[in-house]
Amino acid sequence: MSYAMIGAGHLGLALAGLFARKSLNVSIASRRPPQAVAPLVRELGASVRAVPLEEGLQADIIFLAIPWSGFREFARSAAIDWRGKIVVGAMNSREDLGDRLSPEIVTEELRGARVVKAFNQLPAAVLGRDPSENGGRRVVFVSSDDEEASSTVQALAKELGFSPIGLGKINEGGRLLLFLAPLMLHNLVEHSLS
Fold it and tell me: How far apart are CA 132 and CA 17, in angstroms?
């Protein structure tokens, strides 16, 4: 399985750092050429490498870590076959989408992609820290209309050290997060009772 972060800002680097911590190979791609991102990537370790956007889009699992305001432009310019690819929407929209959720728009724009909403409820600074905290594991929420893709991302989250919680389909889980996020979801830690 190959992984890529699309976006080399705070969120993309925080996500890539999680992979580096577990020595999992991951690529980072952005609109900037790889050599412009390379100094930031070198600090993360040998398992992370900067690649051209076209190469990053060839990964099996693609994390969207770009500002929502640039998503539609990205979708128009990324002319690839999305069928079968798992696309993890780690970004959040700050604009009013009416009664729609951002993963619904991602699904519409990236036809054929298996869209999963995950890793988005944590600020980049918290997301980039070790997920182990006070004897527990930081929680990430996962929702998708594709059960297999959701299970794959939940297993990856667990491998990265998180405690994933599946919230069902995007329409259910996404709306639940919209309602609860302002209240409490920025740093939940699950502790094992055993």
Answer: 14
What are the sequence ranges of the domains in the chain?
3-190
Comparison of pLDDT for 178 and 41, the residue scoring more: 41
- Secondary element (H or E) of residue 117: strand 114-118
Sign of the Cα torsion 127, 158, 55, 34 reads: positive
Q: Exposed, middle or buried: residue 53 (CB in 10 Å: 0-12, 13-18, 19+)?
A: middle
**What pLDDT, on the 0 to 100 scale, is given for residue 180?**
54
CATH of span 3-190: 3.40.50.720
Decide if pLDDT at 102 tops 50: yes
Q: Two tokens at 16?
A: 């890539």
Q: Name the residue among 87, 47, 66, 89 with its Cα closest to residue 7.
A: 66
Q: What is the helix (H) or strand (E) element at residue 179, kind and residue range? A: helix 170-184
Please give the average per-residue pLDDT across 101-106, as a whole number. Answer: 84
What is the predicted pLDDT for the residue at 12?
95
